[in-house]
Every structure is written in structure tokens, then in C-alpha cells.
Amino acid sequence: MQKEKVQNVQTDLQEEVKLLLNSQTNKEKWWIHIHPIREKPWLLKIAMTCSLITTIMLLVGLILFSVMEISWTNIIDPQVFENVQTFSIMLFSFAFAFGILITISWVVTDLDKILNNKMQFILLSVLSLMVINIGILIYVFETNKGAKSKRHLSWKLFGIRKLSIHDVVLCGMFTALTIVFAYTEQFMPQLPNGGGIALKYLPLITLGVVCSPVLSILAGGASALMSLLFLSSGLIISPWSYLLDYFIPMMIPGIISMLKFKITRKNGYISYLNYIIVGFFTFLGIYIIQTISGYFVWVAAFGPSWGDNGWVYSIIYNGISVWALSYPVNQVLMVPMIKVSLLINRK
After folding, report:
1. Can you tell me where the transmembrane regions are (predicted)?
2. How many whole angstroms separate alpha carbon 164 and alpha carbon 347?
């Protein structure tokens, strides 16, 4: 029996090596698979056209608000005009970036990929303000309901189920791995008032995507509690600072993984875009929570280290910590880490 198990493992590894070698020798073929536009259903052609037009309109709006002057409006107060202009530029920039992503998705996709990546198309359409495409997606999903989509709503759809011994062991392993990653952060570049490259979210993202969002939330909470053993006393000044800077952020990877993005070992634009979306929204949630903590806890206690506006200080400081240091490193490392975990878990 043991010899048969060893032989099965060897054959599985040989198959994986062959797949990797084939993907390496055909890099120019797998990185993007454009479904011929002529073969697309008419409804998908309409969605693709609307997506392209909306993206161009967002770019025009972004340029317009960037060059707009107060004399073009009925606003009298310069401060109000500056706030409205800044908000509009941020909104149009955000929507334009996601508009580019969803437009590429419509170009390279077919009906099967849309049905298998519902959350990606819905979320990107909402964030890029593409109202017509949202209606088209709803129609496509309603007219292509299968047996899988007729499942009754239950907690199992969100990864909530009765935990087995395997789940408990897995949760303990990833909790330990998270603590190890958190401990190694003290040897990496850090900002003077806390924050920097944070690798502790990698195991939690992997656990939530590959296994269960609930296990990721449990592991995150346990890791946050055990991190009290080696955190410096100067980094926690109140229960609120611990809750907003450590406890809640450690649960966000599990919460984001509840959105059920289809993460697989397959190569291609749609697949890698799911990795980017999971990583981006995980750190967006962390950024929002820590920015709130920066203003209501740290600025309230010590004031901003520079400038007079506490919100501006918290937004910029946490933006440097999350978007300039933590997010790029985690986004790059999470792809191979998740793929290895999927290979081990045979998904």
C-alpha cells in the first residue's frame, strides 16, 4: 500500500512538472487568450462597446476636472471648490483605473469565463460606474442559471461549516505561520511611528482563498491575540489602538475571501486579475481601518508629526505604510504562495 501511495505521488509530481514546462515553453500563448470578437454573442459585444465608451468618458471627465477653474462654476468659496475638485479627480481616477481592467476583461473573455467569474465582473462594473454593463450581467446570469446556481442560500456558501480536526490543525498551522511572519517584520524597513512592510497577511489571504474564509478569520483573531506577546508597549496606547491597528486588520483577509473570487492555478488575464482584486481589496480594507485609527487614536493623543490637518497626515502616513511598502510585496508573493497551496490541496 505504501509503495502504491509513493508511486501515485510521483506520477502526480511528474504531471505537474510537465504542465509547468509546457507553460514555460509557451509563454507567448497563455498570458492572454483573446476570444475572437466576431464569435462573441451580440450581448457581449454591446457590453464591450459600452465598457469602452464609459472608460473614454471617465478619462474625459478626469481631464476636465483636472483643468477646471472656479470661474467655470457657481461656487464662491475657493476651499469648497478645491474639496469638490479633489474628490471628483479621485472618483474619476478610481473609476477610470477599474474601467480599463473591466474593458480588457470584456475583450479577452467569453460567456463561460463570465459565468465562472461573476464576482469579478460585477465588482469591477460597479466600481467603474458602468450601469448598463451591470444590467447586462444580471440578464446574462439570470438566463444562464444552472444547477449550481440554484443552490439554497446557506452559511456554507460563505465557508461557514462545522469544523473538523483537519480544519483545527490547519488553522493552528497558519496561525503559527502568521505569527512567524509578524515576528520577522521587525527586521524589515519600518516607518518611524509604526507601520511598514507587513508580511503577516500572506498566510491569512492564502488560508481564506484556498481553504475557508472562516478559518482565515479565526487564525487572524488568534494571531492578533498572540502577537501581544512580542509587540512593543509603545505600539499599543489603548484598547482602541490594538483593535483598529491589529485585531480587525488581521480578520480582513478572511472577510474579503468571502466574496468568492475564483482563484485557480490556471494562467491567463482573468485568473491573475482575481489575484490582484483579492490583494487590492484586502489592503484597501486594512488601509481604511488603520487610517481611522491614525486620526482618532494617534493624532488625538499626540497630534500630527507634521502639518496641521490630522486627516491629511493619517491618510498620507498610512498610505505610505500600506500602498508603498506592504501591498506591492504581498501582491507579488501571494501568487506563488496561493498556487503552491492549491497544488498541495489539489485544487
Report:
1. 42-67, 87-109, 121-141, 163-183, 204-231, 243-261, 273-298, 310-329
2. 19
Domain region containing 202: 165-344
Q: Tell me what the pLDDT averaged over the chain comes to.
A: 83
Q: Report the C-alpha gap between 220 and 173 in whole angstroms.
A: 12
How many domains, in total, are found in the chain? 2
Question: If you ran DSSP here, which 8-state letter would residue 187 be given?
Answer: G
Measured in degrees and rounded to the nearest 5, phi and psi for residue 190 equal -130, 155
Q: pLDDT digit string (tens) for 250-289? A: 999 999 998 878 888 888 888 899 999 999 999 999 999 9
CB 190 within 8 A of CB 322: no
Strand partners, 196: 190
Distance in angstroms (rounded) separating the CA atoms of residues 346 and 102 = 30
The residues facing 190 across adjacent strands are: 196
Average pLDDT, integer, range 52-65 = 95
Could you tell me the three cell numbers for 327? 501591498
Measured between alpha carbons, how far is 107 from 115 in angstroms, rounded to an integer?
Answer: 15
Task: Kindly report whether the global pTM for this prediction surpasses the value 0.90.
Answer: no
Q: Which residues of 149-173 are buried (b: 16+ CB within 10 A; e: fewer)?
A: eeeeeeeeebbeeeeeeebeebbee
Same domain, 170 and 278: yes
Q: Is residue 299 part of a domain?
A: yes
On whether residue 27 sits in a domain, the answer given is: no
- Measured distance CA(103)–CA(110) in Å, rounded: 13
